[in-house]
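cron nightly-structures :: item 1 of 1
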Amino acid sequence: MAFCHARDFLFCSMCGTFLSLKSSKSADCPLCGLKRNASEIEGKEVRYTVTAEDIRRELKIEPLVTLESAQIAEQVQRAVVNETCPQCNNPQLEYYTKQLRSADEGQTVFYDCPNCRFKYSLNT
């Protein structure tokens, strides 16, 4: 059996729906009715890997283990800036920065109001 890198033979060329092998002669599209000759699919093998992360993401399950670095980040004393909170007009906001985009672009500044817990971010 030959390994096939292109997996498009499993899908309808008209609408992209996964083909159904209901007979030994053809593969049918359940959505638009297109029929593909089974000889085009016969003898091809597709391999793929499903990781625990893939399953967790698909089922929308939170990770069982929380990273220690995530817990430490919440306990750190944050810097304070003299900016007014847009929600409660508190005169000072706590802030921290992260580089979320590519290195040649600016960082993201996250603001937290210690009074009303309002949060927002700015890309600089």
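cron nightly-structures :: done
The first helix runs from residue 52 to 59.
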